[in-house]
Amino acid sequence: MDKTSYYFERLVGSGSFFKLETRIFHAVCLALVVCISINIPVALYLQIPSLAVLLSAVVVSAGILYYLSRIKSMHQLSAGVFQVFVNVALVFNYYFNSGINGPTYTIFLLAFLVCVVTSPTKQYYLWLPLNILLVTGLLTVEFLFPETIKLTYPDSQGRYIDMVFSYLIIAGFAFMVTVYIIKAYNKQREELIIKTQDLETANVTKNKLLSVIGHDLKEPIASLQSYLEVLVDFELDEQEKQQIKSQLLAMTKNASMMLSNILLWTRGQMQHFNPDLHTLSVSEALESVISQVQRIADNKQIRFWIDIPAVITVKADRQMFELVVRNILMNAIKFTSSRGNIWLSANIENQQCVICIKDDGIGIPDQLQKDIFSLSVKSQQGTDLERGVGLGLMLCKEFTELQGGEITFKSRLAEGTTFRLSFPVVENANS
User: Fold this and answer.
1) CB–CB of 288/327 below 8 Å?
2) pLDDT digit string, tens, across residues 131-167
3) Residue 51 in contact with residue 93, Cβ under 8 Å?
4) Which secondary structure element, helix H or strand E, spans residue 407, and what is its range?
5) DSSP reduced 3-state for 167
6) How far, in Å, CA of 428 to CA of 313, rounded?
7) Confidence band of 290 (pLDDT split at 50, 70, 90)
8) How far is CA 47 from its chain centroid?
9) Of 293, 318, 326, 344, nearest to 395 (Cα)?
């Protein structure tokens, strides 16, 4: 928004606090003050002091009504008084400004336009008949009693000047009001379109989220129930019991991570996250993450290769940073076969810290890659029939971008996947 638009919005009021017709009323009052103020010197030049006094009264009254509506929030009272005052002022203007030989009857038409755009719809049936009645009544009185209206122009040149200036003022006033109305309605329509699209997106996302919850959490719980029923109904040796316990623990951890991701994402939709950015040592921040996922990888006999220089520091939110890397590492473990490899490295490229997580797992099918960071992709089973993390990769993208970072990936089926995370690097963090 440029400065002119900013200050104009301050004058007419914000759309979040005032209705459209109220903002139009404010704009009309301001335009009236400006246009009538320009016409006062013209009245003095034409040697019609009574008209100059009347126009000055209109300017002051419009300013007061604007103040009552904009500052004191008394719009209904201000709008009603405005309509009455404008019509009364025009009656006096008709008398003091040469009647039908002056421009007042055209100003009546403009006054009705203002009335329509600033009044509630139900009041149209009051102001239209009143406007017609006043104009026809004044014209009739002047026709029947022409001596009641005096020609106040000193000469024909004065009348010509007044008509020209009046036309310019009326045209300028109508132009400003019409342009503002069009812009205001267009802006309001665009806001409604955006809100409608947001609601549609939220509804689609909600349905997908319910599908994720119903599918990804129901299955682990059902498996837990089946394993527990086996423990209760059958006599098992210690080796079989230990195997079931290990499987139960793995499924519980996986379900816990999925539930954590769902809760995080839901909270992020309800209230926008504000990352708490600090200078972090990458190796130190990821120490606990590596320790956690290392145990899970050991159960699948997956080898971890880590290369993170201790000197690399980034600007990031610690919790978000750890969650992003943890989710991607968990994803790599799930889709890497037993005795596979996962590489975790960090280096500096073009003032960015690039964290690379590479695996030689099963890869991502081409048809799924374009939607990998959305809820459109259903969670897939891992190499040991683990369930996918569900919202994990979508959270990774959102949280990475919130921290000013970027996430990309490359994958080939049956060859593996490489994720690249870029974060703003902090140089000379210890200096």
Assistant:
1) no
2) 889 989 999 999 999 888 888 888 888 888 888 888 8
3) yes
4) strand 406-412
5) helix
6) 9
7) very high
8) 55
9) 326
Q: Which domains does the chain have, with CATH numbers?
A: 3-198 (no CATH), 275-424 (3.30.565.10)
Residue 427 CB neighbour total at 10 angstroms: 9
What φ, ψ does residue 343 adopt, rounded to 5°?
Answer: -110, 130
Do residues 405 and 308 lie in contact, with contact meaning Cβ atoms separated by under 8 Å? no
- Please give the helix or strand (H or E) that residue 325 lies within, else none: helix 318-334
For residue 191, count other CB atoms closer than 10 A to its CB. 11
Crossing angle of helices 104-118 and 156-212, rounded to 10°: 10
Query: In terms of Cα–Cα distance, which of 291, 319, 296, 317 is closest to 306?
Result: 291
Residue 318 CA to residue 285 CA, distance in Å, equals 7
Single-letter residue type at 343:
W
Please answer whether residues 310 and 283 qualify as being in contact, where contact means their C-beta atoms are separated by less than 8 angstroms: yes
Q: Which of 265, 267, 392 is nearest to 327 (CA)?
A: 392
The rounded distance, in Å, linking the Cα atoms of 296 and 306 is 16
Helical ranges in 119-237 per DSSP H = 124-144, 156-212, 218-233
What is the distance, to the nearest Å, from the Cα of residue 5 to the centroid of all Cα atoms in its chain? 19
**Residue whose C-alpha is closest to residue 418's, from 351, 348, 345, 353:** 345
Task: With beta carbons less than 8 A apart as the criterion, state whether 241 and 231 touch.
Answer: yes
**Cα separation, 25 vs 19, whole angstroms:** 10
Each residue of 223-247: pLDDT tens digit?
678 778 887 888 888 888 888 777 7
d(CA 83, CA 114): 9
Positions of E strands within 37-112: none
Q: Report helix angle 20-45 to 104-118, nearest 10.
A: 160
